[in-house]
Amino acid sequence: MTTTDSTPFGTSILFFLNGEKVVIESPDLDLTLLQYLRNTGLTGTKLGCGEGGCGACTVMVSRYDVEQGKVTHASVNACLAPLYTVDGKHVMTVEGLGTSANPHPVQERIALLHGSQCGFCTPGFVMSLYTLLRNNPNPTEREIEECFDGNLCRCTGYRPILDAAKTFADQAWKRGAAVVNSDGSVKAVSKSGQEQEKGCGIDGCCRLQKPKETTFAVHEPTAPFKGEGKEAAALALATPSPSASASASASASASASASASCCGGKASGTAACCKAEAATPEGTAAENQAEIDKQLVIAKFKRYDPTQELIFPPFLIRYAKGTTAQTEGEAQMRPLKIVAKDPATSWCQRFYRPLTLTGLLSVLEEHPDAKLVAGNSEVGVEIKLKRSKFETQVYVSDIPELQRIAEHADSDSVSFGANMTLARFEHELERLIAKHGAQRTQNFAALRENLRYFAGNQIRNVATIAGNVVTASPISDLNPVFLAADARVVLVSSSPAEKATREVRMSEFFLGYRRTAMRRGEAMLAIRVPLNAAGECVRAFKQAKRKDDDIAIVTCGLRVRINSATRAVEEAAFAFGGMAPTTVLATRTAQSVRGRAWGAAPTLDAMLAACQDEMRLDYAVPGGMAEYRTALTTGFLLKFWAAACAALGACGGSGGGSSSFGGTLAAEMAAADAPRAVSKGAQEYAPVGDRAVVGKGVAHLSALKQTTGEARYVDDMPPLLGELHMALVPSERAHARVVGIDATAALRRAGVRRVLTARDVPGENVWNVFRDEEILPTHEVHYVGQPLALVVADSQKAAQDAARAVRVEYAELPAVLGVREAARAGAWFAEERRLQNGDVDAALAEADVVLAGESYCGPQEHFYLEPMGAVAVPRGEGDELDVFASTQNPTEAQMVCADALGVAASRIVCHVKRMGGGFGGKESRSALVAAFAALGAHHTRRSVRLVLERAEDMQTSGQRHPFFGEWRVGVMRDGTLRALRARIFSNGGFSHDLSVGVLERAVSHIDNCYRIPHTDIVGRICRTNTQSNTAFRSFGGCQGMFMLESMLCEVADRLRMPVERLREINMYRAGDVTPFMQPLPPADWNVPRMWQQLKPRFDARRAEVDAFNAASRFRKRGLALLPTKFGISFGAKHLNQGMALVHVYMDGSVLVAHGGTEMGQGLHTKMAMVAAETLQLPLDAVFISETATNTAANTSPTAASASSDLNGFAVHNACRVLADRLRPYRERMPDAPFSRVARTAYMDRCNLTAAGHYATPDIGFDWQTQSGLLYFYFTQGVALAEVELDTLTGAHTTRHVDIVMDVGRSLNKAIDIGQIEGAFAQGQGWATTEEFLYSPASGRLLTQGPGSYKIPSAMDIPRDFRVSLLEGADTSTLKTIFSSKGIGEPPLFLGASVFFALRDAVLAARKHAPGAGAGAGAGAEPGAGSGGSELPLHLEIPATPEVLRMACEDELVAMARIPSEQKEGRLPFALRI
Fold it and tell me: How far apart are the C-alpha atoms of 347 and 393, rounded to whole Å?
């Protein structure tokens, strides 16, 4: 833009928000864009983590780039973007796209194709996809997948989101194409390039045809009826004739086929028009209703027309160019200088935004130590997590001189502007590669390769080259490549004596940890990167815990130049990140190859040995993983050696050396690092022919509200007048006596109202089932992060600042963290659970083989996207209080609040509209958050809001229980299991919470699907100094099953038998009895049937995998075929009940209240379907508003996968009562609409309200006598997984997953498919990437957010993901609602099939190990192993890349091992608990 140095500073910012102009004078410097949006009521943009790691806060920010002369659109993390950064820009939020009544096509498609479950992450996905379409209306499927690399989802497993998004791929088939103009507008063109107004989209297109509606007879549930009135016959709905059914099926198939493409009725020649001819989609069985349903939905979608998008405001183009009409009162873009309103509490005291380089240097001359800010991705996280303060900040992203690119013919190099965003940097690199060719641009290709996996799109869109370089991060993705390329940093000084620029070689730029050669008052102007010469090869490698959007463990840039005639190395530069306090050159390693022949084995041996020596790390190095990091350096060098051999034509010189790495390694390594395939999936289920509503694949009823941002969560509630905020004062010790709490300094701060401690609890200060946990501790703290006190203040920031001012004096006590340590020390709670059958000692004595071993599986964070939160609102009359909470258990929240306040429960009403995920984490621990808010409201008599930050949530809410087991098994030579003695221990944390129930399920699921005649299983709960671990989806079941499956793998290793064969031999048969004496009914034992359904695929892939492994040395594939059975019922008998209240209003609408809560699992949708089916009404006549304790009292928690069973029957029973009452009126008025029937019944004084109750019959198990029915039934499934493992890094790709699941007769097949996929992804994360680590020195949790704790991303799901529902099973014995089965938890363990497939791949890799076999995998310390050379292989969950790499046991791993004497008596950096 055009400005002069004399342009005065402004103090206001101007931007457009969803098309409306906004001007803010002197904005709060601490305010983020997200906070501003939510404060203004635009709550569709969510706060999930606050560190730019989850994408829930994604918005689109558009700007006119003067240098490029065009409008650019960028997806941005609003949680990191300071409000001042949007001056001159257009911000679009999810609310600006559409409404639930009139959604944008992106919103519509994600909603109706089941891409939204809990919905909390959904607006972020919507905005990421919308931004992609604004930049490129015709994206490829790969571009669509990659646009989500900065978005996380915990519910869906990503597949339906990707399916919905891919309906926008390659729009040319219906629109020709679309072109984005420089002003941001879009014009449609035909394939020939001519403009056109419309694509196909003609009226009457076959894609828009609706199938004929069909009605069906209703089959009643088989469980006993409870409630008023008498049982009635099936509701009289017309049953379709066979011809009608056939017609409906043909119509559906026709529409499904037509939706793939449409000629618009203009087909000619031999081509047939889809309007005239119906055909089943290719590769899809005619009976696959899942595909038909999907295509019918797609056929009804709005046509996406990019020409109709909201245009970029023309005023902002003039504003950016500096051509606004000031004489007419239009604002001018000016440099900014803003001073904080309250410098004492602000993170930033003064802010500058220069518009020219000269202006920047002037600011730096006055403030030479100012912090330069561009994307704020680093500074924002430092402020958020480290509470760093920067007195003066200078925003540099609006300075054109810092974003320019220049080619230098004289130096054969290219300069890239320091403030060029990484997204644009990647684009420019691609342009230069195309221009100069591959050989000349190898440095650029290496940079592009690491940029591909650098953070997520939202970060790359704002982060800059300079931000990555000058922060001097030791794990920078780009700095090793710059260093290896011998790049130069171009600096410019503000000092009057040093106005000229200077260049610093990258090898001289980094001085130490976070220190560089930059002088005070200097700024980075550019970085100059050389073009490459002939005979040169450059590569970059990076390894992280997760491939996409993750910080590096080790990263590198590697370069070599050889003499093309002699192959002698003339120059080498090997730069590594993650191996020292800063990026370093391995100079001795480079020296070891100079003058040697590249491609010769001796050269390789010398290089690897030198690298191992030079890059070796200390055992307790910060960051941990010392052995793995060292092994990665040599692994990367080996990959580079192979790549360079191929690129430089230096292969064939490997003979005669000691190295075993030769042959076809080059081609293999190239394939290993190739981009992953685009994912695809298929779902399969049969049509429902005998029900009108239940069983159909109806979309989540709130899905459109969620995709449009209209759905409200706890923190979206508008603040009430005078509302206060609460913050926690956490313990800084793992175990200590509290000597004193001094809140004096906190209470002196402005806006602070109260600081509450244990003495301020007016009622009972204990809670949970065992009453062994204090709400606020009186004398002792038990883990780091335990809330000691509560601060109530006028704002969240004031409360948080004051909380940090509270001083606590401790007297430290001994602490125990890990389950192994606690088990061996006997530190456990009193409860024990035991299952004993037969004579174990005798059976072990008779067994052919007796094997002893251990199993361990680690904890898992729920990582619901919506953190814990509650708002407590006094009603103003006596002790009445409304609590709005994100909880799965409103009754417990109500009771804990009542007990803490010392009031009757009838005075407290707990409301739950919906949750942004729960997964068990909000079953019990959420009550504590509600109680904290209630205490604040009680003492202040004002509304109090408490929403935990992500780190607080992870520190205090509890996780999945880690389990450690010791077992001894007896087996015959043919593989028949005879006896099992197991002692399993859970890490319960510091209190009981729900640990007894978790232990019971683990003990009762340790058999999984196998008959073991003689068992002695004992379980105990260890007491440790960690947060109290709690319920998590599968609730101990997956841990128990893993104990056994891990054991079976080691048994199979010892027997030299495929583990699938061992599983098959010992699989339960119908009528067998479990260790808890429950027979498996012949009509409902379907695991063998599903196993046989997948076995042919397994056999075919086994041959393919074996052939691949035989031909591949460092890439190995693995397979696993894994079954599961999961018992459905609460372990506590009294919880197996549900209640409902149903109102029929005079207008015919129906309101349902029931005891279950909605957290994304579709419970409300299913309950509405049950009500509609029972009342013989359309689904849209039924509404569920919320779950509240004044309409559904004494509810059971929404957990145990039993909520559909319990609440479904309760709803059904209530509706049956109403149906009985209304039947006479319907019979008298057969043709009348239901509204008239309802009004007539009301006028006749008929009661149109009914309550329903249901109690699971026959249930109840006595652990002392081991008698009774423990589970009402079992949900079952089988999964087949195939993986590919890079044995040099431990990275893997899940290639294929096939699942068959028995869900009975599903209440909603599409929702159940979504639950299966989501649970699988969560189980996959538990088994592979999700590692929970503690500091053994302090007891502090080290993995406190998405930056360090890695749930699966969209690119981690199986590349081919297929899910089928078992059809045709006998459901006659199921006494459940409409013969359905619970599905939320059972599929989770199938995610471990990926773990066992990886184990299979590791076994294949170990066949190459020295001594043919090698050390065991992981132990208590991450990545540790026994170092032995014999089978069986021992692996533990999670199998992270570190664990997998170190388990492969090759020469490089052996070289990287740290001698045991160097570990003796020393604490590792991190500890698995």
Answer: 10
Give the residue from 553, 610, 602, 558 showing the smallest Cα distance to 578.
Answer: 553
992-1008 burial code (b ≥16 CB/10 A, e <16): bbbbbbbbbbbbbbbbb
Burial zone of 317 (CB within 10 Å; 0-12 exposed, 13-18 middle, 19+ buried): buried
859 prior amide bond cis, ω within 30? no
Helices 1309-1327 + 1392-1406 axis angle, to 10 = 40
What angle, rounded to 10 degrees, do the helices at 890-901 and 926-940 form?
Answer: 40
Between the alpha carbon of residue 1330 and those of residues 1167, 1295, 1325, 1352, 1360, the distances in Å are 33, 19, 5, 8, 22
User: Is 76 strand, coil or helix?
Assistant: strand
Question: Could you give the CA distance from residue 557 to residue 555 in angstroms, rounded to a whole number?
Answer: 7
Yes or no: say if 714 and 871 are a contact pair by the CB < 8 Å rule.
yes
Beta carbons within 10 angstroms of residue 380's beta carbon: 22
Measured CA to CA, the distance from residue 573 to residue 589 in angstroms comes to 9
Instruction: Please report, for residues 347, 948, 1410, 1454, the alpha-carbon distance to residue 31 in angstroms, rounded to integers and kept in the order given.
Output: 10, 18, 59, 52
Token code pair at residue 1021: 């709960």
Sequence-distant (≥ 6) Cβ neighbours of residue 597 within 8 angstroms: 566, 567, 568, 569, 603, 650, 653
Read off the pLDDT of residues 274-294 as tens digits, 9 standing for 90 and up: 444 344 433 333 579 999 999
- Give Cβ neighbours of residue 602 (< 8 Å, ≥ 6 apart): 596, 656, 657, 658
* Rounded CA separation 1237/1249 (Å): 15
How far, rounded to the nearest angstrom, does the alpha carbon of residue 545 sit from its chain's CA centroid? Answer: 14
| Cross-strand pairs, 1274 | 1127
* pLDDT at residue 881 greater than cutoff 80: yes
Cβ neighbors of 486 (< 8 A, separation 6 or more) are 505, 506, 507, 530, 573
161 — pLDDT class (breaks 50, 70, 90): very high
**Both structure tokens of 295:** 């295509």
Round to whole Å and give the CA distance between 888 and 638.
51
Round to whole Å and give the CA distance between 889 and 910. Answer: 9
Residue 234 DSSP one-character state: P
Rounded Cα distance, 487 and 492, in Å: 16
Distance, C-alpha 494 to centroid of its chain: 45
Q: For residue 90, give Cα distances in angstroms to 122, 150, 795.
A: 21, 21, 28
- Give the residue numbers marked as catalytic: 1385
pLDDT value for 406: 95
Confidence (pLDDT) at 389:
78
CA distance 562 to 544: 31
Closest to 30 in 3D by CA, of 775, 738, 726, 798: 798
